[in-house]
């Protein structure tokens, strides 16, 4: 049994497609969360945001890959999971959130995709500096 937590944050980059060893589709993405919404013990004193690694599998992964883009503010319900220890990293494992539900945060007074910060002269990964609806 795992306990689900709710994570609220912004995607700094588009989700990436990966595949499990069984060939199942996996969507991996980072979620920049305010420290107040981060898992207990994550983040350093004084930090305003932390990055949480998230993975969705199967049909949810396909929806994430088809719908979410850099700058989206999303809610993720999921449980913390750890990857198997990596012998090349002296047994270290990576902690991530295994998403069970993912949705856009519509509580913005008229939904819009946040601008993605980029260097001067560069274009955001979305191809556009900002979206508004």
TrEMBL record:
Gene3D superfamilies associated with the record: Nucleic acid-binding proteins
Domain of life of the organism encoding this protein: Bacteria
SUPFAM superfamilies: Nucleic acid-binding proteins (SSF50249)
InterPro entries xref list: NA-bd_OB-fold, Primosome_PriB/ssb
GO molecular function, one term: single-stranded DNA binding
The entry's keywords: DNA-binding
Transmembrane regions: none
Keyword Ribonucleoprotein: no
Signal sequence, start to end: none
Designated name of the protein: Single-stranded DNA-binding protein
